[in-house]
Amino acid sequence: MGRIRAQTIKFIVIHHSAANDAYSGAAALKAERQHRGEGYNFIVDDDQGPGNDGKYTAVQDAPDNEISNGVYGVNSQAWNICIDGNFEHQQPTADELHALVQVIATKARAWGWRKRDISRIVTHQYAGQYLSAERYGTACPGRNVISRMAEIRQRVAAYLPG
Ligand SMILES: [Zn+2]
Question: According to CATH, what is the number of the domain 6-157?
């Protein structure tokens, strides 16, 4: 795949794995992902611990400067992050949301994003419908993450300069 420069990253796109139990866990997801040829730059997972135990795994799946394969038609402008789970059916845990916010905030800061840039943090569903010329639909990253997007953006904004 091609390369992308930090200045070219216009969107941080959030996905879920929609994995069944056979593919739970970030490492297993990475292996499975390579099978399917789909791609994310980062995968976060709450380690399946009981409840919200504060533990999570954050795995760099592809280098940040490598164009991954998350949103057809938008990949050359996007950095893709995936939460392990199916959030159409399950709720994200506090650990998963924490991991997601921490990773996104760390990257956005490094790339010079400011508070006003949080609108560039989008769901795969939004990117497919409004950013891709293909105008395609997907449930990704699931309604229980989509409904938390305002909160996720605000939590990331707290780490960014004004
Ligand atoms: Zn997706």
Answer: 3.40.80.10
3-state secondary structure of 45: strand
**59: β partners:** 43
Residue 26: pLDDT band with limits 50, 70, 90: low
Listed by start position, the domains of the chain span 6-157
Instruction: Give distance in angstroms: CA of 118 to centre of ligand 1.
Output: 19
Residue 47 Cα to ligand 1 middle (Å): 20
Q: What is the CA(58)–ligand 1 centre distance, in A?
A: 17
- Please tell me the distance from the alpha carbon of residue 91 to that of residue 82, in angstroms, as a whole number: 15
DSSP H or E run through 78: strand 78-83
On the question of pLDDT at 48 being above 80, the answer is: no
> Would you call 51 exposed, middle or buried from its count of C-beta atoms within 10 A (0-12, 13-18, 19+)?
exposed
Alpha-carbon separation of residue 7 from 65, 109, 153 (angstroms): 10, 12, 20
Answer with the residue of higher pLDDT: 113 or 28: 113
Which range, 93-97, 117-121, 132-136, has the best average confidence (pLDDT)? 117-121
- How far is the centre of ligand 1, averaged over its atoms, from the C-alpha of 120 (Å)? 16
> What sign has the CA pseudo-torsion 25, 98, 81, 138?
positive
Q: What residues pair up with 15 in beta bridges, in sequence order?
A: 82
